Amino acid sequence: MAASHLLEVKNLTTEFRIGGSVIRAVDGISYYIDDGEIVGLVGESGCGKSASQLSVLQLIPMPPGNIVSGEAIFQGIDLLDFDPDGEQIRAVRGGKIGLIFQEPMTSLNPVLTIGRQIIETLVLHLHMDRQSARKRAVELIDLMGIPDAKQRIDNYPHQFSGGMRQRIMIAMAVSCNPNLLIADEPTTALDVTTQAQILEILRNMVKAFNTSLLIVTHNLGVVARYAQRIYVMYAGRIVESGTVKDIFDNPCHPYTLGLLKSVPRLDEPKGRKLVPIVGLPPNLGNMPGYCAFWPRCSKRSPACKKKPWPELRLISGQHYTACDYDFDKK
Amino acid sequence: MSDNTLLEVKNLKMYFPVTKGLLRKTVANVQAVDDVTFSISKGETLGLVGESGCGKTTVGRCILRLYRPTAGRVIFEGQDISLWPKDKIRPLRRKIQLIFQDPYSSLNPRQSAGDIVGEPLTVHKLVKNNREYRERLGELFRMVGLDPGMQDRVPHEFSGGQRQRIGIARALASNPSFIVCDEPVSALDVSIQAQVINLLQELQEELKLTYLFVAHDLSVVRHISDRVAVMYLGRIVEITDWETLYENPLHPYTKALLSAVPIPDPSLEEKREQIILRGDVPSPMNPPHGCYFHPRCRLATPECSRVKPPLRQIADNHAVACIRV
Fold it and tell me: What interhelical angle do B190-207 and B160-172 show, nearest 10?
């Protein structure tokens, strides 16, 4: 393994204390991302994919949240050592690590022009003066493919369509030349054609500036098209990881397999019955001592219930799974 | 039309006035649905796809007569219902039902699941006494895969998928022949989506239902539909069977829409051609001249900005509204 990754998260655990019970949203996950890489983090709602990203930047409200343990080594420095309200972490957020959220309407300030919001970032992180910051902001808006950037910069968020707002979010996130972009469900609220536009812009950013991109999503198609490596999360843990080819051609966790079988595909023949994953995701406040996927698993055996949730084991190359079932044996 | 036709929509138009000033003078019209024609046979599923604001939901609502269409006809079981007054519409709703998109906001949070599902039974007077009511309620719950013992719970005690099942049970309560499914799975997680899609398909087979399936997700629509109509800015641009849609799409918008949907197969994705559309959908208040799609179209010629292309039949079961194909 390479000596140092751009970001390496080790054994991250985050808990929320709600109504007397402790909910372990992120349960000892480890992952990394290298320079210029596009990595997908896949899972369904409530699996901890967003919570893990917010934890890395210490954006979890504390309390009720609590980062119990773990490290997030970014360019050799552990981000979790910083004071959550201190100068150092604030220089990273929006500076070296850019964030793009799902809801562009709620993450932009409705009473400030978009220009002011982009300029604010530039002044704060790059210490630019207002004039050159404004020039740079116009360039950025233009780069995102929004026509008439010079006029549009003085518009308010409500004057833009959903897709354009998301482009403004991206402009803001890339404004300080970040080393890493974290896009949390960047296109979920958007139409498919707009989704394609936005993801294309992100891919171009990665190519042009050698930025790394972490896409958090539930859409398997999106990761298949854009990502090089994937982490699949379930109930707060990473259950499978590997290159896109590993995961899609040879899924080795029953959950990944289940996800792939449950989505309709554009190119499949008619009449294939979807195979849903039975049941519901577990209640994170009341986890069993064994594999949390057991109640929904198609490959389960009584033996699974007698041992703790399996650790990730190597299959080949970079392909890991947290399941002891031997998929080759059939 | 053949005897098998359940629903026909002819030249349907739905304009919403934009008013201004004290006298509420109409200054413009939002042309939500502009000249839409299609028909659905008994037992068939017609998919209606398009992006937000293309008028697909409005079409569904005109069929349910939640709106009174500006022009055009909606013919259900041989009768033109487009101008029926309210008191005549209500009994009709027994036969035409709706499944909503958002299982969170479409259920009354203060009603128990049993009351939600049972309400149509009392409204339409479909049961004679309490015993029959209880029996039918239990039957409906089992039909959608819910435990009848959960009747006394309120919506927030159910998961998203279960709530959507409650919505489906309610729609089925009055024994409808036709159901408009308006984005029924788009608010659900992938593993739950498949459960609901399968349920809708099983119910269709069992109860001989006819669906209008309105959604933006092409892969879901294609999976469930026999035929698919693609809408853009209030008009149908292409209508064909599910197979031709993927194998041989003709309208440039359909092609762009298909290419925008990623397939969960990385090897295939490497080879696929991607068409990225420029810009945004124009405002339906002020649509472009000629073909509504021409400002974003790769094939557009000057003529496209003059002529409004009609939907023309180019093969059995395949019609397209483009002068360049």
Answer: 20
